[in-house]
From TrEMBL:
This is unspecific monooxygenase. The keyword Endoplasmic reticulum applies. PANTHER family: CYTOCHROME P450, CYTOCHROME P450 308A1-RELATED. Belongs to the cytochrome P450 family.
Length: 502
């Protein structure tokens, strides 16, 4: 009896092993080099066990294969491709975009899923077409005064902390500013009036950016969430954004105001009840989308999520690097002082455009710490990878590691060194369009890129007008990334903030 039991368990284990390794000869058969997979986890064991951030894992795999243009990998049990070659990346992201217009992350048809980031092509095209106008220069220009107000309050808050002798956790501190600006610019809300705001924020943050194991299930059975219509976000989150949108719609009595912000655009679109996508040829049938409350809440959600955390992480990495490099910090401060003097202490769109060195420091920060990484696309059809013998099959996922490319010494000599001069106009002019990808590239790049730059530079101009940052040697030795995050964020660290003597 005992032997039968052991034999049964051993057979079951063996069958399970065969099942979870069944695809592992896929890349070998196609003569594509890649890291050796581990049963069940493929090459993402460290990610699935929440030991390492996904961006770091992809970056390491990129580094392991310096002579390959493409690398064959397994996301859990499913084969996928990592592209290392810049011309191939350009073909996928830009030139042959129509073959790769899905990000491959869509899930349910309900709730918050139909947002610009997660949506598949048919819905995405309509949304992108209608929401791009929110981010034009004119719209951004009109929003700078809102950002400036948030910046002033932020500086006051930091001054108060300094007076109390507190050393705040930097990332958490900057989130206060980014949430306030996105609340004001997107929804016309005064964040300071929201009760218990940091608690609400923390709750949202955990839900939005902490991966759940359902992601691994989707990697093993790609598309299963979509097929089963499973919503990956809890009801609480949908409810929060439903309520937010309803509150703002009611405040404005259902009509656009003259703020010309995100909610105004939504209210304009809402009057049409249906929105249309672009028509790219005479034959193409125009896609329309009913503007349901779900669709509205989903866009509110993605602008909110995109608008506060990415910029907050970037700014905290930037302050960390400036604390490590005091000479660069002095250069930033000097530039801020000069520009602020010229504009009578007012942050305007024009003033921000003159903060050239700060822009270089910002770009160099995102080179070393690309927040949303890796980039990903799903093949819409079988596609022959240019310059190779390989055909990617319809439905397969293709990844591009911005972190890997950004630390590749072929494009950035001495890549671990923080050096903003890499982004001087002369040094940037000859760079391959896919050698720098913090905001992705092509028609599906980051829609909020310019908003993020203006939002961050406003905060940084205000901050460095008033303070300097420094850190203890042990803080400044090494950044440690949080493993349990979709996006790149550092483990909590504290910097000393010292008011400048003006
Ligand atoms: C420093 C700040 C930011 C960084 C580093 C960043 C980075 C990125 C990246 C890498 C992508 C994917 C691009 C691709 O696949 O090619 C993306 C997409 C996106 N981002 Fe950002 N982002 C930032 C700020 C923002 C802001 C402020 C917003 C909104 C207000 C935003 C909204 C979005 C949306 C909606 C998408 C999906 C676009 C689409 O699929 O059409 N992001 N972002």
């Amino acid at each position: 009896m005992m032997y039968t039991y052991v034999a049964l368990v051993a057979t079951a284990c063996y069958l399970f092993y065969l099942y979870v390794t069944r695809n592992f000869s896929y890349w070998k058969q196609r003569h594509v080099n890649g890291p050796r997979p581990v049963a069940l986890f493929g090459n993402l064991q460290a990610v699935a066990l929440r030991r390492q951030n996904i961006a770091v894992v992809f970056r390491d795999i990129y580094k392991q294969f310096p002579n390959e243009k493409i690398v064959g990998m397994y996301r859990m049990t499913t084969p996928c491709l990592l592209v290392r070659d810049l011309d191939i990346a350009k073909a996928i992201l830009i030139k042959d975009f129509d073959c790769f217009s899905d990000r491959g992350v869509s899930f349910s048809e309900r709730g918050l899923s139909n947002n610009l980031f997660h949506a598949d092509t048919d819905i995405w095209r309509v949304l992108r077409n209608r929401f791009t106008p929110i981010f034009t220069s004119t719209k951004l220009k009109n929003m700078v005064y809102l950002m400036e107000q948030s910046g002033d309050r932020f500086v006051e808050y930091v001054r108060q902390l300094c007076a109390e002798g507190q050393e705040p956790q930097l990332h958490r501190l900057i989130q206060r500013y980014t949430v306030a600006t996105i609340s004001a610019c997107a929804f016309g809300l005064d964040f300071d009036t929201i009760a218990d705001k940091m608690h609400v924020l923390q709750k949202l943050d955990n839900v939005i950016f902490s991966p759940s194991f359902i992601d691994e299930v989707d990697m093993m059975y790609p598309g299963i969430l979509r097929k089963l219509n499973i919503d990956i976000f809890p009801k609480d989150l949908s409810k929060f954004f439903d309520t937010l949108v309803t509150t703002v719609v009611n405040q404005r009595k259902g009509k656009p105001t003259n703020r010309r912000d995100f909610m105004d655009l939504i209210l304009e679109l809402r009057q049409q009840s249906e929105i249309q996508g672009p028509k790219r040829s005479v034959e193409e049938q125009q896609r329309t989308l009913e503007l349901t409350d779900d669709i509205i809440a989903a866009q509110a959600f993605v602008f909110y999520a995109g608008g506060y955390e990415t910029s907050a992480s970037t700014m905290s990495f930037m302050m960390y690097e400036l604390a490590r490099n005091p000479d660069m910090q002095e250069r930033v401060i000097q530039e801020v002082d000069e520009v602020m003097r010229k504009y009578d202490g007012k942050v305007t769109f024009e003033a921000l455009n003159e903060l050239k060195y700060m822009e270089q420091v910002f770009d160099e920060t995102l080179r070393l710490y690309p927040i949303v990484d890796p980039l990903q696309r799903r093949a819409q059809q079988d596609y022959r990878i240019p310059g190779t013998e390989l055909t990617v099959k319809k439905g397969q996922m293709v990844f591009i590691s911005a972190g890997g490319i950004h630390r590749d010494e072929r494009y950035y000599p001495d890549p671990e060194r923080f050096d903003p001069d890499r982004f001087s106009p002369e040094n940037s002019s000859n760079r391959h369009p896919c050698a720098y990808l913090p905001f992705g590239a092509g028609p599906r790049n980051c829609i909020g890129m310019r908003f993020a730059r203006v939002q961050s530079k406003t905060c940084l101009a205000k901050f460095f007008s008033a303070f300097r940052v420094s850190g203890a040697p042990e803080t400044l030795r090494e950044v440690r990334f949080v493993p349990r995050r979709f996006i790149l964020a550092s483990e909590a660290f504290k910097l000393t903030i010292t008011p400048r003597k003006l």
